[in-house]
Protein 1
Amino acid sequence: MYYVGIDLGGTNIAVGILDENLKIIKKGSVPTRASREYPDILKDMAMLTLRLIDETGLSIGQIPYIGIGSPGSCDRKRGYLLYTNNINFKNVPIRQEIQKYIPLPIHLENDANCAALAESMVGAAKDVDNSITVTLGTGVGGGIILNNQIFTGFNGLAGEIGHIVIHQGGEQCTCGRKGCWEAYASATGLIRQTRHAALGNPNSQIHQLVHGDLDKIDAKTAFDAMRAGDATGTKVVNDYIQYVAEGAANLINIFQPEMLIFGGGVSKEGETLLQPVREIVRNCTYFGGGGVPQTQIVTAETGNDTGIIGAATLGLQ
Amino acid sequence: MYYVGIDLGGTNIAVGILDENLKIIKKGSVPTRASREYPDILKDMAMLTLRLIDETGLSIGQIPYIGIGSPGSCDRKRGYLLYTNNINFKNVPIRQEIQKYIPLPIHLENDANCAALAESMVGAAKDVDNSITVTLGTGVGGGIILNNQIFTGFNGLAGEIGHIVIHQGGEQCTCGRKGCWEAYASATGLIRQTRHAALGNPNSQIHQLVHGDLDKIDAKTAFDAMRAGDATGTKVVNDYIQYVAEGAANLINIFQPEMLIFGGGVSKEGETLLQPVREIVRNCTYFGGGGVPQTQIVTAETGNDTGIIGAATLGLQ
């Protein structure tokens, strides 16, 4: 048996074929060109998939289903993408469109949930049953795995852990609320915080790091400034870590998962980020002591292929 | 078969016997006198239970287990109460102590989880599988029911939904963090907010309502002032409702439960509280529209007996 996972992104469509050990044996991608109509985008997706299956020397009969991870909210039962703001998709019948070209069952899932499933299947959480994966990227995405399955809530929309308000009335979030965790702990939030700090501190090394062009600030800039001994960068990083930890402690108080996994761009900072997060969390989770086992806080292991792996394993939950 | 539930509170120990339709057929209580040593308190608990069983004309053989709800954190497997700050209990072997007098299996559970189970078994959530019950009392307690079972997390400590920070760096919470939902949305928080507003507004009717004694402010005072047309009371209530709604929206974005149930003292305000909460939540939950079924927000139905009922049904999950 072989497994096919598709990662539908705003920039690229990536497709991978996994063997029965869940190793990727073939990969390919095409640009999404997201401004197009959905039938054209989904046709490209199907054609790439068929080409890769063919190039691997496989037949359709060796593949039990096609798994698709997409940003936004899905209706899994009907195979519809209800809404995503990254691509201009609203109520798109993904399953029906793909099945025009590939006569296989189609599993559809939110991409953050796919990332969490990938970690649960082959990544950091492969030896535990309950984990939460948080992706610190453009937004703060999340997937909740309970008993080795994606937790979706009764209406399929659960797990929007970036959209818990940690600062009532605070920064405007893209979801409409103010003060969401995403508005503070996303790469976007970190970039905003770095820029704001740089504007208020003309002598900060942040300015040199971006050669005077604040539009060049990325999620690494404040960390680089901190490493260069810059006080402004250090303060930005410390505040950012506090934001990350605050949401992490909220999730632990609610779920007490065996493992809390950080993925996405900012998580590449590794222990520079996680070590202080662990320390703050230890001091602010409920009943953190007393010999009771505590949540492990770690970085994701499935990297750039997480979307493909998660989508490919949707039928194995 | 008959079921026995014990509600261990800081003031009273309440015991109830339920018939097979889960109706309470016998009830009794004794003062906890919480300053005593635990063997004395637990002996009183066992004696009251035995007396009620006897008075109902039942034999031990007709009762499958004794369920006990307690504040604090439990080790369900060993039957230990790990910690509670309401009674001075630390690492108390509840099961072992009770079994000195009653030779039956003992189920031990946190009282907020018992309240959630009671609602799930016979209360507002009896027709749904997934619900969250939030008790707005001295603190903000909570119990999460997934697939008709209490969700406890891998280490038994999950569901501390009062201890999600909604206002980073805000009001000091009893748990050690600052800005927890509990610090704002509990009856205690509401009383503090009412008192603070009264102090700042000497002409507010709040002063008359408590006959000039601000120590008499309770969780109803601001609502009463609002009903009397007082601007200060109205502002306190509106702000409080916003706090309640903010945490509710967080929980819905995370869990998408079929039902979110409010119990505890403040929930007696009923629709005065819930109608505006629903409105705020509708506008700030993620993907609140589009024909997808939404969480129902309702008041608890099991009232003062919720602890007994939840404890008595612990073995029926």
Protein 2
Amino acid sequence: MTGIEPPFLAACRRKPVPFTPIWIMRQAGRYLPEYRKVREKVDFLTLTKTPELAAEVTIQPIRRFGLDAAILFSDIMTPVEGMGVDLGFDPGPVIGNPIRTLEDVERLRVPDPRETVPFVFEAIGILREELPDSAPLIGFAGAPWTLFCYLVEGGASKTFIGAKSFLFAEPDAARILLNKLADLMSAYLRAQAEAGAQALMVFDSWAGLLSPYEFRSFALPAVRRTLAGLRGLELPLIYFPNQGSTLLEDATLASADVLGIDWRLPLSRARAVVGPEVAVQGNLDPAALFAPREALGTQIRSVLREAGPGPGHIFNLGHGIERATDPDAVAFLVDCVHEWTEGETGALDPEKP
Amino acid sequence: MTGIEPPFLAACRRKPVPFTPIWIMRQAGRYLPEYRKVREKVDFLTLTKTPELAAEVTIQPIRRFGLDAAILFSDIMTPVEGMGVDLGFDPGPVIGNPIRTLEDVERLRVPDPRETVPFVFEAIGILREELPDSAPLIGFAGAPWTLFCYLVEGGASKTFIGAKSFLFAEPDAARILLNKLADLMSAYLRAQAEAGAQALMVFDSWAGLLSPYEFRSFALPAVRRTLAGLRGLELPLIYFPNQGSTLLEDATLASADVLGIDWRLPLSRARAVVGPEVAVQGNLDPAALFAPREALGTQIRSVLREAGPGPGHIFNLGHGIERATDPDAVAFLVDCVHEWTEGETGALDPEKP
């Protein structure tokens, strides 16, 4: 580590930065030809379980774009398999033995992730050797509610009505399952930090399926428990309640340093809700990367303007990048954000084009 | 028509009602055994195109539950076929010739729906004969943006990235398509009113995919154009921007009498945004119908409490009913809403259980 704090970590702490840092959700992925080349040789599961390859695809977008953070290539379901879950991918997660009763919940183990998924921590070790200091490594986990969705529904779904109705029909069993997932994710994230991760992010991809009441009753206590288990770790915690525009006030109670904001809520409105003590990450619509350069530039400028002059903004998309995206549009995005915010505060310079 | 205005129509106009009226999105559908019996004999498309059968399944939930409004059984894609769209269902809409260029857009016709879908207006005629006065008939159409999603994407999708990227990549062609759809839906809704529909609803199922900027630039002008084409009709207009929590302020500019609210936003917050001049419709989470009766009762009471004592609340779910729902839970819901709100204002009586 050099003496100067990388801009991404500084922004997470709401400190001044020399420019607005940027990284991109799912930045290691199919839109990159170099990623597709690796995937020609191995399937997705093998890739996540082979430390050298996982590290390689994690680094690819850093090399190509000069992004300000790297995020471990893995899947949110990876640590769940060791609970006794029959997990496959097709291409989304498919659970052979979905949870339907209290007995199913009680049967699940809370293993030590250092024993069940050692390859994750090996990949982190390799990455800390190979990544430049300018690109800190983000470790991550799925939020308990989002993992719950897959475990109960048995696979991907538009409405996850099976998972949601389980909350209502079996609230006690649901809470036990959420707590088990919280404890496992806490241990998993802690082990990632011990292996060298420099920030930790919790993805709550399905938070937006819940009403504020349901979020407050079920999902939020489980996130709080996950993050409470990380107390004492000296690194930024990021929580992303996807599609959570109506949940943000509650989401601040998760006590994360940074909240991820999807593209539906302008950052000025998000800032007004979450307050000055929380940094925000987001929130360009991934579809904007399909626009001609001028229109894309307008959208980028709009995100920076909405973020405002205050510290504590990490630029990102409002959701994972789409596989049909042109990598050159990403290069343009990264350059715009860096150039237009270069200066004393790291906010949009109104003099720049 | 009797001299007394049915509670549903009165509530749309924010007049006092003897109890809070209730109907349920997708109330005619697969969760009802009597609907499944009809579907054993005919496929979905045949059902929508056979006036006697469409009328029969429309009436089924009125007979069973004593709901306060009926909604025509049909599909939002029905009037689109006449534009020159190669439409199938599998089971969601599948478009054989998706729109990809300005030329594709220009090739689409704006037909007279009275010629292309006469069966819709015949079904309305039958229904006005057969429905009780207590259950006014709602006609409906898809919002231009939501129809656009299917026409451009070519079928159902989680992200509709194809449709959204077309907005950004070809904004002029996108606007021409949205305008054509607005003009057709306007004519279609007007013809439904002329055939006897007593209220008109516009479903914007995919509004929630858009940021406020995108909504304001594309979806909203098209809804405004649709509703502006209905000026002079003396019946309530309902607009449902699904998942539109961050769009409501803009959605009021559509000038609908009623806005549908999904379950993510408590009605008190929705009311604060849309103001006293607009009625609200919603917003019980469809998953709550899977809860034991006591927990379901708590959720129903919570929706009524959030709606507040003011006039202008139509009870509904926050989204279409799920096919695995127990019809007895629906009967319980309807009875609770009616019993707990019976009185001078039609709002929740705090003395009732």
